[in-house]
Fold this protein.
Amino acid sequence: MQSEFDINYLIKQFDFPGNFKSFGCKDEGHINSTYVLVFEDSGRQYKYTLQKINTYVFKNPDELMENIVSVTEHLKKKAGRNSERCTLDMLKAKNGKYYCIDPDGGCWRCYRYIDGVYTCNAIDSPEVFYNAGKSFGNFQRLLADYPIENLYETIPKFHDTYSRFCDFIKTVKDDAKDRARNVKNEIDFVMKRREDTKVLLDMLKNNELPLRVTHNDTKLNNILFDNDTNEGICIIDLDTVMPGLSLYDFGDSIRFGANTASEDEKDLSKVNLSLELYEAYTKGYLSAARDSLTENEIAYLPFSAKLMTFECGMRFLTDYLNGDVYFKTEYPEHNLVRCRTQFKLVADMENKFEKMEKITADAAAI
Ligand code: GN1
Ligand code: MG
């Protein structure tokens, strides 16, 4: 396999067992690059996940890794003897840190690979999405007593939707790539919803919502599902675990998983909110987290789905206007296509909002 990095150099930076056999690319996320490494020792196979940290996005790898290691330790203690497949297991590099630097300045980390699991990018059965909700609900619950002051903010103001809106406005004004004229409708779409951007932040300020330890990137493909039971057994991609609102995590899961099409579907008629999937996730999530949530956190679940979808669409649009510097893209208009799916989904949620509220209230009453 051809690669833009020296795999043999990287292998020497960690203490792997036996002989190196192969490696393959496993690209799912929009930010980091992920590979699977296979080693063999006395006839036994050992697999690892090697990941290049995107240091344009995560400026401080020491703080990033400290967050991940300590959150993982906490989760391990809670899981007790069953922890082996339930948490990530980071490897120290020979330099004593949880990452190493390659000769080009690239930053790499390594986890033990978890076998017997699958990830999904789309849901084909409500049961699996119920399990996804249960997993993120449990994640929230298990971290409820994690000392929040120990966490670094790996990306400041990550889900501060108002601050994202201000960044967007500045980007439109600068219009560095002369693209704003292509997206008048999308800009208009954002401006009409500007009032939404402050709602949760104001509630936090007024102590109407509690600050919690949250994952902040609760995409469906950040859960490992067990091959045999379909239970979500491990939450991955802990880069953005930070102080936040429980609503960010719920909303982002719905944004990605309850969409009837993919995040970059070009045919917008295929993009809708599935109420069936919304219901499944809400029930799963509340089955695990109900007792630790406040009434406001429950009441704003439908709004959070709309807000997180809106925020993500605005981020894709901002990146398109900036010339695609943040999210990985596969073709020139990729970020714009993604923005359009998100805005279509927001519009569909607005149409279905009362139904979402009814489903939420019913699920909370169980
Ligand atoms: C990015 O890395 P990935 O693909 O799980 C992004 C999320 C967005 C998501 C949109 C650190 O997540 O915030 O919601 O793309 N992560 C970061 O698909 O910006
Ligand atoms: Mg990520």
About this structure: The chain is about 45% helix and 15% strand. The pocket of magnesium ion (ligand 2) is lined by residues 29, 31, 217, 237, 239 (CB under 6 Å). The chain has two domains: 4-115, 126-365. The radius of gyration is 21 Å.
